[in-house]
Amino acid sequence: VITVNQGKEVELQPYGYRAGSETIQFAKTLSEIEGLNAAGANHIAVTGDYVIVSATNETPVVLDALTGEYVGTLDLGELAGLNAAITADDAGNIIISTYQEADGFRVARMASINDTPEVFITHSSTDYGKDISVVGDVYGDAIVTMMYSPWCSGTTGHLRFVVSNGVSDNGYWSNFTAAEGVTAKIDNNNGDVIFRSADVNEPYFMSGYSGDVFVWVENGVAYDAQLSVASGNEWMLGSVCLDVEKFNGAYYLMTAADTYFAYGTSHAAIIDATSRETFAQGAMIYTTSDYGWSAINAGGGSTDCALKVSEDGVYMYAYVVYAKGSVGCI
Length: 330
What we know:
It is built from one helix and 29 strands. The protein has 330 residues and is mainly beta. The strands form six sheets. Strands 1, 2, 3, 27, 28 and 29 form a six-stranded antiparallel β-sheet that branches. The chain is globular, with a radius of gyration of 18 Å.
């Protein structure tokens, strides 16, 4: 996890975060975390004082969000032992989606780590639920999004659920038209899609296997694709996760790239997504080796990331988990 901060006893600058203020909050190997299947760890959720790390078909583990120390486990109730993904919304609620159940998938919510999961979305498709992103407050107004999960080159299909006053609609399938040099490399399975806010009229963003790019989508058209790193090896990297957070007047979008090969440099990247102009200025790159993270043989498409602003609005924390490797925060 990387903590992007303004520094104690230092006034916030007029806009965004202060470049060069990044400090390592914690970094630890997954194998040292009690009760966690390190090989299968593929999702994180940051809620209040805790970061939750989950592995497929396993009980999620709860860590202290600032130290990474073990706190306990998360009881998923009737969803325990299922193929499930986990995330958190802007209000700190925990959201769980199941994947490839016999009759589709379910999405449940928890108000805290001590709550009981409440299913509030059901759907008959078995092609969604492997990954999930949420903005807003699922007990109020929120947008829940899921990328098409099976292997399929050339699709940007995704599901969007709009939650109003705690009640979800039946879901809406959507895709977009590529423009301005956006290629098919942004799509495929093992991707992620997230709205900038809980307003369906706001832009949304997408990432996917074998492209290492951010994509800005507005009014059904992908207007911009921004390489998170122009190194010549982006074809071997998969930026398969996204999170967005508003900090000090700016919207920040984060991804973390892993490799499907035993070589190549993995990294996290954060980009200013406040406007298309700031988006076009490029991303800030955080190479794993610089922050104590290990992503070697992580297992392509098994990375997750999260952004969280402190309650006092002074710090922004960035979290990354690499299967078989590490979990960390800056």
